[in-house]
Amino acid sequence: MRIAIIKLSALGDIVHAMVVLQFIKKAHPDARIDWVVEEAFVQILQNNPHIDTILPLNLKSIKKHKRNLLSEIKKVKTYAQKGYDVVIDAQGLLKSAIVAKLIASQTSVIVGFDKHSIREKMASWFYDTKVSIAYEQNVIIRNMTLIAKALSINLSIQDILDKEPFLYTDSTFEQKDYILFVVGASKANKIYPKEKFLELAKTLNEEITVVWGNETEKQSALWLKERCNNITLSPKGDLEALKALIGSAKLVIGGDTGPTHLAWAMNIPSVALFGNTPALRNSFATSINQTIQSNSNVNALRLNKNDFSIESICPNDIVNLSKKILSY
Predict the structure, then answer these.
(1) For the purposes of burial, counting CB atoms within 10 Å of the CB of 323, is it exposed (0-12), middle (13-18) or buried (19 or more)?
(2) Which fold has domain 2-161?
(3) What's the CA gap between 252 and 322, in Å, rounded?
């Protein structure tokens, strides 16, 4: 069986879908699995033994350069020559559904969410098999349900809890004695204040490494380093370097953002902080991967862009939870 999975972006969303790969291979050991993804996220999939081929696209470039549309369509059509038996759109957007349709052959079965389970309802028009699961349900359970039904696999919550780590690099992880702070996020209201990160660092009194990915995050990291002598900055790196950095940490603390979710994927202890986004939907708690949700009333179907309640989370609550996790 030849399978194409379409999950284009973003970092955390891709990670939350990748967990199913190990279970596909257990149920269908001879299956060939290809993954269609935006070029910027190729490295997060690299070195995964369950993926046969990574198929990159650059659909984001079309917004700036309309002429790229034809070249991207041509690229997708070359991928279609692989002759997939099953094409799974795990994104549920109109653009990913169109990619699914273009990459499928006449004999392919295209599987996706039904119109009541996604934001862009028109996407469901392109699917042969439509899976119903409420949009506000946990994202990992949504991915698990979709792919399990597409491939006739029996999966349970316990399977996810017992998962093997599923992010890989060329290097071997060496456990080091540092806690990793993730000080950035894609949106301002998902960022924990640097002042409270400073209080957290001083109270923990541990070796702290701060990861950063852009100039704004670097300035926050430098601000912290100048005020606390147990803080160091990570070098700027790519996604391969980020996997290695997280894989060597003893604990990761950050907001609802990709790097924090990488810790869950790698079975590295973590504390994820949630304000305007719902922890019950966007994470999967384990004994070593825990969350703290602000007191905000969050509606997964209509997030409040003016909700900065993550700033109200008390550093002492993070310290206490961190110590509890590290004592396991």
Answers:
(1) exposed
(2) Rossmann fold (3.40.50)
(3) 9
